[in-house]
Amino acid sequence: MTAVDLHARFWGSPGELPPVLLVHATGDTSADWAEVAAGLAADRLVVAVDLRGHGASPRPGSYALAEFADDLVVVAAALAAEEGRPVDVVAHSLGGLVACLLASRRPDLVRRLVLEDVPVPHPREPRPPERPDGALAFDWDAVLQVRAQIDDPDPQWPQVVSAVTAPTLVVWGGPSSPMPPEHVREMAETVADGRLVRIDAGHLVHASQPAVFTAAVSGFLALPG
Questions:
Q1: Tell me: the pLDDT tens digits for 141-176?
Q2: By the 8 A CB rule, do 162 and 100 touch?
Q3: Are strands 194-198 and 168-172 parallel, antiparallel or unpaired?
Q4: Most buried among 72, 180, 184, 198, using CB within 10 Å?
Q5: How far is the C-alpha of 209 from the C-alpha of 205, rounded, in Å?
Q6: Nearest CA to 170 among 150, 184, 182?
């Protein structure tokens, strides 16, 4: 597998706190983080990427979750090398699974991890999505390939999650989220050092309640260690 060069957006500038790497969900782009990024960038550098097949990043046609993680490792390693310290990662949905792969594979690169409405994957009944009309800001094949991997997930996911050693904040969107609450709770309980917070905003917590989400994330990332 060959990593692709991800497009990124930047806010703020290097400060006393480590940089934050923002990772979006399926069908979104780095622009989805604009409001949260602006809030986090008051005292640190914030970087949001377009995952492969999304936004201005390449569309290679191959969208294995491991390949998304390969791409993200490159970005995180470059940021960590430039700053001389590991980065904080904030990730939503698909981005959260990719961030888990990053953190489990390269614990030296991730200081703290925030997972927004991300359950441990379990097999589920496939419900093929309908393609929206018109031009898309992402490759529709990416949606189909990702959905297939989440509907019938790798049985090694619990081991991947348990290998995440970075202190982790799992943000659950409350009962209006379509994510199974027991599997979101499982995420917080399976990582080595996890905690769970509920923000009643549905699956799109950072978009529906940006101020509340940013405050929770800022408080968690400001903790020492």
A1: 999 999 999 999 999 999 999 999 999 999 999 999
A2: no
A3: parallel
A4: 72
A5: 6
A6: 184
